[in-house]
Amino acid sequence: MLRYIFTTMLCSAITMSYGQNKIKQYNVIRTSDVPKIDGKPFEKIWELAEVGNNFIMLQPENGTAENEQQKTLIKIMYDDNAMYVAAYLYDNEPNKIAAQFSQRDQINVQSDIFSFWINTYNNQIDQTRFYITAAGAIADSKSTNGGDDFSYNVIFDARSSRDEKGWYVEMEIPYQALRFAKSSVQDWSFNAYRKINRLNQSFTFSFIDIKQGNEAQYDAVLRGIQNINPPSRLSLFPYLSTQSVQFKNTNKTQFNAGLDVKYGLSDAFTLDATLIPDFGQVAFDNVELNLSPFEQVFEERRPFFTEGTDLFSKGNLFFSRRIGQQPFGFSSVYNQVDENEILISNPTQTQLINAVKITGRSKSKIGIGLLNAITKKMTATITDTLNLTNRKIITESLTNFNIFVIDKQYGANSSFYFSNANTLRSGSFTDANVTAFGIDHYDKENIYNYGANVKMSNRFLNDSTSYGFSYSARWQKVEGKWRYGISHDYIEKSYNPNDLGLQFESNINTTYISGSYNQFTPKGKFNNYTINYNLYHSRTNQPNTHNFTQVSLNPNFQTKNLWQGGGFITAFTREYDFFESRISLVPVLYQPKIVYGSYITTDTRKRVSLFANINAENRINNPEFRIDFRLRPSFRITDKLFIRYQWFWQKRDNRLSFVALNGEQTILSSRDTRTIENSIETVYNIDNTKAINLRLRNFWSNAIFSDNLEILKSDGSTIAFSEPNSFEPNADFNVWNFDCSFEWQFAPASSLIVFYRNTLSNFQNNPNQSYFNSLDALFQNSLVHTLSLRLTYFFDVNRLKKRELK
C-alpha cells in the first residue's frame, strides 16, 4: 500500500505542471537618478514611474475593492544597484492612523503597515518581504508558501512620513538583499500589502483568494528589469562582549570575541558560519517543575539556529536545542561523588565551538540545506578533601551534529524531500543516523492534498546497532468552507530520532480523522469563524493494544468589533499510558475523561486589552480533577510604552502518578499539584532604533503525593504497597528570573546591547508549602547576578570594495 502511494504521487510530481494566471502586471522603469529615501516620494523622478492602483481587500471582506477614502498607489523603479519603491497610502482621517513604536521585525503592534513582497524566481513559492510601519519601524522576512520567517535579516532602507492626506513610504532594496540568477532579462513577480489597523482591513495590489492556495501564487508580474548583475555577497559580523557573573562572594568576569560570516556561494545559496559564538544575552527559558516521563521543551532563541532554518524542518529530524543542551551525564555525576569528596564544577550547558549552514533554493525549485555544528567535550570536577586531588568525569563527549536536506518543489505548493541527520560522538558514546523521505502533493486545482513520509533510525551502540522505522500518510481537502481529511501514523518501538531530533512517543499506531467548517468572510456579527471536529484513535504496536480514542469539537470566532474567542470539548475513552510507568510495555490504566475549556480576547486596538482562558478536566468514576485559569491584560500606555502582565493558576488533584522504581516494580501514588505563575513584560521604545526591555517571571509548583502507595501490575491495574514508605517524591519548586536590556541599533545590522539578569531557583521536598512560604524560602538563597555588554558591527565587503574603487 505504501509503495503504491509513493509511486502514484511521484508520477504525479513528474507529469503535472501548475499554471497560475497572473491577475496584474506592472512595467518598471530604469532610473538614472537615485531618489532620496526620506519617506516623501514627491520628487519629479517619481512622476516618470507607472502607477500601480486598484488594491483589493484581503481581510475581512476578501475580494472587495478598496475604499476611495483610503486609496493606495505604488510606484517602482530600479537602477544597477537597487530597486526603489514608493507608496502613497491615502487616508481621510490621518489623525487616526495607528503608529505604535516598535523595534526591527516587531510589526505585530498597533500600527498601520505597508509591505512590498518580491519573488525573484517567480516560482509561486518564495517571497522576500519588506515591511514598514506608520511609525517608521522596519521588518523583513523570508516567506515560503505564505508563511513569514522574521528571523531572516537583510540590509535595506525604508522611511515613512505623514501629512493631512495620509502617510507615505519610500524603500531602497539593494540587490545585495535579494537572490537572483544572472540573466539579461529578469523574470520576477511581486505583490504589495497595506494594513489599516483601526479598520481591521488589509489590502493587496494583486488579489489573493484566501479560500484556496497560498499567497505567493497570486503575485503580479514585474516587467522591464534588464541588464542587472547579482552582486557578490559577503558580510562579516564581528562581535566583542564582556560578561560578569556574581554569586554570593564570588565574581567571575570573562571577555569574548567572535565572528559571524554570511557569504553568497551563488545567486541562490548562502553560507552562514558562527565562530566562537556567544549566546549569553539570549532570553531565559521558562523552566517548570517537570514530573512527566518526557523532557521539557524550550523555544529556540539563538539567532543562528532561528534564521533561515525552515528547510531543516523537513521530516522533523532536527531539534536545534540538542546542540548545546545540558550534558548527557550532568545528573549522573551527583551519584558518583564518594564520601569525603566535593563536587567542584558540573557545567549545565554544553559549549558550542562553531556551526556552519548552507541554505538556498535554485531557479529550478531545488532547495538545499546543510548544517554542521561541533560541541566541546564537557567534564565535571570532583575534589577529594583528604588528599586534595581532583578527578574529572566526562559528562558529554566532543560531538559533531550534521543535517542535510534536499527539497524539490513542483507546481505551486507541492514538494518531495530527502533528509538525513547524523550525530557522531568521540569515545565510547552512541552515534546515530536518521533518514527521512517524504512527499507533499496538491492537485492542480489546489483542492486536495496528499502526503506521506518514511523514516529510518540507526543508533550505533558499543556492542550492537538499534534500527527503527516509521511512516505516515494523509489525505485532506484544503479548499472551500467544508474541509476534511484522514491521516495515519506508524512508529516502531525502536525508532529513535532524539540524538538530533525530538519525538516523545514510539511504539504507536494512530489514525486521525478531522474536519472543519470555515466562514472566511463577514456574516452577521462575525468577521469569520471556524468549527473544527476530529476523531483520534491510538494503539500500541507491541503488544497490539487499544490505548485510547478521543473525539473533539473546537469552535473559534472573531467578531466585527475584533473580539476573538473559542472553546473546545474532548471526550476520551479509558486510556493505557505506556510512558508513565517508566518500564517498557507496562501501562498505567486511567479511566475515561472529559477535557473542556474556552478563551476570549478583547479588541487589541484599544489601549487596554485582555486575554483570558479557563480549562478543566474530569475523570469519569474517578476523583481526578484539574482546573486552570490564565489572565493576560495588556496596557499600551503610550505609543512608546507597552506593559503586559500574565497570571496563571492551576489546581490538579488525585492524579495517579509515578513515584519511583522499586527493583523491577513501578510504585504509584495519587498526587495533588498547585501551580502559580506571574510574569511581566515591559517595553519602552525610545525610538525605532533604541529600546529598553524588562521581563520578570516567577513560577511556583508544589506536588504532594499520598502516603498510600500502589504497585503497578502488568495489566495496568494496581495493588497496595505494603512495605514502609521510604520514598520522598514530594516536590516544591520555585524559580525567579529577571532580565533587563538596552538595545541600540546604531547602524544597519549593527547593535550595542547592555544586559542585566538576576536569577535563582529552589527545590525542596516540602509537602506542605504554601506559595508565599515557598517564595520566602526562595529568597533565602543568593541571587545570581549577570551583567554583560555586547557590540556587533556589520561589514558589507561588497560596499567596502566599491569605496576602494572610488
TrEMBL record:
Highest taxon of the lineage = Bacteria
- Residues forming the Carbohydrate-binding domain are 37-179
Domain DUF5916 as annotated: residue spans: 230-802
CDD domains (UniProt xref): CBM9_like_2 (cd09618)
Query: What biological process terms from GO does the record include?
Result: carbohydrate catabolic process
Pfam families xref list: CBM9_1 (PF06452), DUF5916 (PF19313)
Q: Which InterPro entries match?
A: Carb-bd_dom_fam9, DUF5916
Residues passing through the membrane, by range = none
Q: Name one GO molecular function term.
A: carbohydrate binding
Query: What is this protein's record name?
Result: Carbohydrate binding family 9 domain-containing protein
The record lists the organism as: Subsaximicrobium wynnwilliamsii
**Upper lineage:** Bacteria, Pseudomonadati, Bacteroidota, Flavobacteriia, Flavobacteriales
